[in-house]
Amino acid sequence: MAKQKMIIDCDTGVDDAQAIMMALSRPEVDVIAITCVNGNVDIENVCRNTLRVLKVCDALHIPVFRGCTRPIIHHEEDASHYHGLDGMGDLPNPPEVDLSCIQEEHAVNALIRLTKKYEGEIKVVAMAPLTNFGVALRMDPDFSRRLQSLVIMGGNIQGKGNRSASIASEFNFGTDPEAAYVVIHEMACEITIVSWEVCLSATYPWEKAHECFNLHTPKSNFLQAITKTTIEKQKARGEPGYRSCDTTAMAVALDSSIILESVKMFTVVELNGSNTRGMLVADWRNKLCKPPNVTIVEKTDTKKSLTLWRGMVLE
Predict the structure, then answer these.
(1) What is the pLDDT at residue 1?
(2) What pLDDT is attached to residue 47?
(3) From the CB of residue 273, how many other CB atoms can be counted at a distance below 10 Å?
(4) Does residue 74 contact residue 176 with C-beta atoms inside 8 Å?
(5) C-alpha span between 112 and 269 (Å, rounded)
(6) Which partner from 63, 128, 197, 235 sits 20 to 30 angstroms from 245, CA to CA?
(7) Do 161 and 174 touch, CB atoms closer than 8 A?
(8) In this predicted structure, what is the pLDDT of residue 233?
(9) CA-based Rg of the chain, rounded to a whole angstrom?
(10) β-bridge partners, 261
């Protein structure tokens, strides 16, 4: 059976690293490229962190592409307050990597080229601000028609924001609202949204999470080291279990049966509201009478996705 070709677009912080490791652990998946974009931290740290993950997974053969260094219009914003200044929980003694391993080709050009080479075969998992895709659509309007599907970790449909700059938008969409708008309104392929709200409910019991981090394998040791700070932050907030947004999205991309409830809906991205800029607004009552443009995941099977978690750290 042919493997599923996948491109991962990331701003590699802690949960991006986990999601990449999850994808690489699956024998049925062929990660043909990783594209980086400014987001959780600056682009250089994103590229460096991505190489670190690949080194731990013995997968440095996968090409990594440096993408957009800032949002299309919006001012720069990062999440170093959560992921650490380096994006990896301020990891002590991190794996040494060589940034010259980053491909010279820009990530946007790589996305366009690879979709031409493997037309209709590539599933993209987007776990960062959508800048690379917004630019790709402007450079090549037919870009998205060549994709098999797109799974996005981003957006929020209940107004539960997680950014300091806006009370009602999610980080990835709020960091580059224009790119999110272009993607949601112009992508021609199937789009699945794993929103901030569903990630809030997709938590793993603390004892199960700690079991995965304490298997004493090279991969689990790495995960334990990079996740230490975020675990402390989540426990300090009294969260009922461990939450990892990007691995929730990756689990959905790897196994659609993990989706327990979903709804097809027409959505828009708010660009003008002072408190809602970047929010994904769903037309729940079909007031606009427009056909659905996304599938919104409403509930996931955390027991099944926990199996994927455990599988990525056994070696």
Answers:
(1) 74
(2) 96
(3) 14
(4) yes
(5) 24
(6) 63
(7) yes
(8) 86
(9) 18
(10) 299
String of DSSP letters for 9-68? EE--SHHHHHHHHHHHT-TTEEEEEEEE-SSSS-HHHHHHHHHHHHHHTT-TTS-EEE--
Give the C-alpha distances (Å, rounded to integers) separating 105 from 5, 131, 193.
20, 16, 28
CATH of domain 4-311: 3.90.245.10
**Could you identify the residue written with the tokens 């999850």?**
22
Give helix 14-24 / helix 43-56 axis angle, nearest 10°: 40
Mean pLDDT by 10 residues, the chain (315 residues): 94 94 96 95 94 96 97 73 68 83 97 98 98 98 97 91 72 94 97 95 90 87 88 88 94 97 96 89 94 97 90 75
User: Structure tokens of 44?
Assistant: 């250089």
Q: What is the residue-wise DSSP string for 231-281?
A: HHHHHHTT-SEEE-HHHHHHHHHH-GGGEEEEEEE-EEE--S-TTTTT-EE
Query: Known catalytic residue: 11?
Result: yes
257 alpha-carbon distance from chain centroid: 19
Structure tokens, 43: 């682009």
Residue extents of the structural domains in the chain: 4-311
For residue 154, the one-letter residue type is: G
Q: How many residues does the chain have?
A: 315
In the set 9, 11, 42, 140, the catalytic residue is 11
For 5, 128, 228, the CA distances from 40, given in Å and listed in that order, are 26, 8, 17
Q: Which amino acid is at 202?
A: A
Single-letter residue type at 47: C
For position 88, what pLDDT does the model report? 74
Residues 263 and 295: beta-carbon distance below 8 Å? yes
- Residue 251 CB burial class (10 angstroms; 0-12, 13-18, ≥19): buried
